[in-house]
Amino acid sequence: MKPNLITKITLCGLLLNGIYVNAQKTNLEVNIANTITKIQPTMYGAFFEDINFAADGGLYAEMIKNRSFEFETPLMGWKQPNSDKHSFNEQSGIATTIKVLENKTNPNFCRVLVNDDKGFEIINEGFRGMGIKKDARYNLSLKAANHNGAIKKIIIQFIDRNKKVLGETIIVPTASDWQSYSAQFTATQTEAKAQLKITFEGTGTIDLDMISLFPEDTWKNRKNGLRKDIVQLLYDMKPGFLRFPGGCIVEGRTLAQRYQWKKTVGDVDKRETLINRWNTEFDHKPAPDYFQTFGLGFFEYFQLSEDLGAQPLPILSCGMACQFNTGELVPMDELDPYVQDALDLIEFANGGVETPWGRIRSEMGHPKPFNLKLIGVGNEQWGPQYIERFKVFEKAIKSKYPKMTIVSGAGPFPEGDYFDYGMQELKKLNAEIVDEHYYKNPLWFRENATRYDKYDRKGPKVFAGEYAAQSVAIASPDNKNNWECAFSEAAFMTGLERNAEVVNLTSYAPLMAHEEAWQWTPDLLWFNNLEAYGSANYYVQKLFSTNKGTDLIAITKDGKPITGQNNLFASAVKDVNTKEVIVKLVNTAATAQEVNVDLKGSKLASKGTVITLTSPNLQDENSFANPKKISPTQSELKLKGETAKMSLPAYSVTVLKIMLK
């Protein structure tokens, strides 16, 4: 009995002690007058990678899959239901593809043979269907060569799974040679899984290419542009930079499959389709129909950066294929074309219209330079092979563009031999910014809020370029965008912000995912063919980004930073433009915490605004059914003198904003 009695007394004491501790108010002090360092405008940004159907089928609003018949299987995405290949004499028609070898970028086109006038049809399935909205207008375009005027009419229709027509238009092909045609039609009802049916009237042969379909209502109403709802979510974050075109997608599984920016600019119909490196990467979610048409190319990325008010940050291949795949290397004596690509990209972004690449930018509709200041060499390469290649790039870029800031990489992990070697060598080279990546469990993020406290203030600056808490494990298909992951990232972000002397750029990754066509989870934004929403993690990112301030100031308890003591994390800034002081508080405890925030060193308004992001359940998530289940609420707080008395809910992220007098 005695051991049990002692255990009960001890437990009772611990419980009472816990209640006593929780009943105490934590006193925090904010020194408004003393700026520690400036917060960089790039502190919080967005990292776009074409994974999870983020470009084709996502941000890029094209609705036709395989519009120019250039996929590995040329008719992938297309069906011809009334073509009987087993009885050629009786079939109503057949669609095949023809390859024109002298056309290097878009060699295939579709040849349709119609044997009778019964209405041969081909159907495009879209990207897991096509999302159409009632009364919305859609713009269709195609190229056709109507041999001998054989086809009298092309009927284009939206259909649902029951073949019901949901809108239609007609094109009359008038020329025997290639000619472009366009039409607009209106959807008669909303449908997430529509398809496009094309029916031919007449008998004979017609050739088709670049069959394209876009909603009229795109971001900034640009013709054949970006999905408005997705860009709006990005715009609302006010990102300081946009990193593109990705991470591993830059490298490619092989060097032949690497991202080559020069193939993604100029006329859209002349951009060369490429297999997406994520299409069969994961056994848990193969996507053999995942290709890159590059309708969303480098010009469009620069343009999007400008739209978002974000600095563009392009990442280029350094001559190393993904080391998790082939690890193929360009020999050092054959590296020049890769280096020239980097120099030419800077000219494309910043050169005058009299320069070769500046002229191409101008001809695409942007005579003014894009004001590129940052460029990344390699993604997450590691080892001596990366360092020796980085040196060549750095020398060439700095020789021609001495003011360009170069981002280097420290490998795929935040610790270990690869990381240690990379950081050691990059420090020797006086690297300007080093990209660090962390995909770890939620506890790691809470325990590493002090990661940068002891980083050398005179060493390389840090780009926290890819991070996301993994609820299960890295690359697990069972990872969730749950609330524990989100507030754990917030706790970590207070540490990033507290160390703004070292940390200059940060971005969550990956940015977005299609509800049905994802490969990697978790992701910041989710979309289907009709809707898009922000995860709980998105609202954390948005809270920090829209409240980043201009000057870092100290918030302490007993003279020490708040880095997880009693499950409390904090950072503070002031904004000299909006004349505000902004305090971020993260309570990772299962119980509410009472805090007094003493604000010293400046006169303040008597009232402040409190923005709270919280949920009682660690596993809670936003969803299409409940997209704002975890989203910010706002309230008013009256100060008592210089003190803000606050109750922080369990599992919460709180932002306090007070105007300076």
Task: Describe the secondary-structure layout.
Blueprint: H1 2-23, E1 26-31, E2 37-38, E3 46-47, E4 78-79, E5 93-99, E6 108-114, E7 120-124, E8 130-132, E9 137-146, E10 151-159, E11 165-171, E12 179-186, E13 191-202, E14 204-215, H2 228-237, E15 241-244, H3 248-251, E16 274-275, E17 291-292, H4 298-308, E18 311-316, H5 336-350, H6 356-363, E19 374-377, H7 384-400, E20 405-409, H8 417-428, E21 433-440, H9 442-447, E22 461-469, H10 483-498, E23 503-508, E24 512-514, E25 525-527, E26 532-534, H11 536-545, E27 551-557, E28 560-561, E29 568-575, E30 580-587, E31 593-600, E32 604-614, E33 633-638, E34 643-648, E35 652-660
Parallel strand pairs: 1-31, 3-15, 15-18, 18-19, 19-20, 20-21, 21-22, 22-23, 24-25
Antiparallel strand pairs: 1-27, 2-27, 4-7, 5-6, 6-14, 7-13, 8-13, 9-12, 9-14, 10-11, 10-13, 16-17, 25-26, 27-28, 27-29, 29-30, 30-35, 31-34, 32-33, 32-35
Helix pairs in contact: 5-6, 10-11
Architecture overview:
The structure is a single chain. The model is unreliable at 1-23 (pLDDT under 50). The chain is an alpha+beta fold and 661 residues long. 48% of the residues are buried. The strands form 6 sheets. Strands 1, 2, 27, 28, 29, 30, 31, 32, 33, 34 and 35 form an 11-stranded mixed beta sheet that branches. Strands 3-15-18-19-20-21-22-23 form an 8-stranded parallel beta sheet. Strands 4, 7, 8, 10, 11 and 13 form a 6-stranded antiparallel beta sheet that branches. 20% of the residues lie in helices and 32% in strands. The N and C termini lie far apart (65 Å). Among the domains are: 78-215, Galactose-binding domain-like (Jelly Rolls), CATH 2.60.120.260; 238-431, TIM Barrel, CATH 3.20.20.80.
